[in-house]
Amino acid sequence: MSHKSRAGTDRTASVAAVMVVAVTAFLTSSVWAQNITPVVLTFSTVGDSRQDPVTYDKASVGNTLSGQDSIWLQNTKALARILRSVQAQKSTMLFFNGDMVHGYGWAGFGYMSSLSGSSIAGPTTPTTVADVVGSDLVKFYQQYGFWRGTVAPVMEAGTYVFPVPGNHETQCKACGKVAKVENENAWAANMGDLVVDASRFQGILGSAPQHLNFGPAAGVGPDGLTTDQSKLSYSFDYKGLHFAVINTDPVGKDAHAPTQWLAADLASASLRGAKKMFVFGHKPAFTYAYLANSVTPPAGLDAAPGNAADRDAFWNVIENYKATYFCGHEHIYNISQPRGGAYQVLVGAGGSPFDAKSTDVTKNPATDRDYSWATVRVHQDGGVDILGYGFDAAFGPTQLLQQVYLP
Question: Alpha helix locations (H) across 226-337?
Answer without folding.
Answer: 259-271, 308-320
